[in-house]
Amino acid sequence: MLYVLRTYSIGNNMKLIKALSLSIAELEQPIITFYQLGVIIHQIYQAKTFRGESIPSIKKDSADYSALTNALGNLVDDGILDPFKGFPSKSVFSILGKTYESPAEVACAIDPFCYVSHLSAMDHHGLTNRMPSTLFLSSPGRDMWRRYADEKMHKDLGESILVYRMNGLPELHKIRMDKIGRIIVHKHSSLHLGAYKNVRGRNIRVASIGRAFLDMLRNPDLCGGIRHVLDVYEEHAEVYLKLIVDEVTRHGRPIDKVRAGYILDEQLGLSHPLISEWLSVVQRGGSRKLDASAEYVPEFSEKWCLSINV
Length: 310
Known about the structure:
Elements: H1 16-25, E1 31-33, H2 34-47, E2 49-50, E3 53-54, H3 65-77, E4 81-83, E5 92-95, H4 103-110, E6 115-116, H5 118-124, E7 134-140, H6 142-157, H7 161-166, E8 179-180, E9 183-190, E10 196-198, E11 205-207, H8 209-218, H9 226-236, H10 241-251, H11 254-267, H12 273-277, E12 300-301, E13 306-307
Parallel strand pairs: 7-9
Antiparallel strand pairs: 1-5, 2-3, 4-5, 6-7, 8-9, 10-11, 12-13
């Protein structure tokens, strides 16, 4: 996220804390991380002005860690920021006057690469009648996350990234999320960001409908169990058939195509030209199972070479 400093006048000799407070108030999210605060103070120090007004208290060309922690202390003392309960010290802060409708808004602000997935995404799209007591998120694994974080820091800071790092300002790093308020958070590591959409008017990213159906095949245990998954397919697959087939064709592994093919074709009697193409990945004489977590049973689909172990 790149924080843009606007250029309109609000008075003479603006103080640093006031500039920070106004910058924070412009964020369209309920929380701010230590890294995000570091980017804001770095940009203000670099400009030495805010909204067209100079800030005489800034004497250095760039902020250092001491300047950041002093500013943070003032913001907390003034009630502008408050440490967000349940997170490590000096990592996440709630913003005065900002509330959140769901824990997902907090999660998506803390982890810029995560999105709501599995049963939580099914709930968002109206695909399940279950009320998740856990927030399910997908986020890249450690190495991929670090790569995305480095790319984002270069985007946020531009050519001044070396100065930012030399002054010991906070890096963008993965913050552990076990709970947000009373809601337990379950993070699933994905090999890539996957297909998600941004929810209009809210700082939330949610798996697309097609990806939600693909995730049901891959991780039924995170989607209410295999029987619930089959019920959801039976109730909704015909309506969303094109989205499901497109997603499975583009991003599905061979086993995903076999499972989806069996359910859509044999179980539900739905047809689509691409489903027939999936037959090319059928593995004769293999031991593929409809539910990967259950034991193999001799009842199977001849067409899709799949053990129907449900």
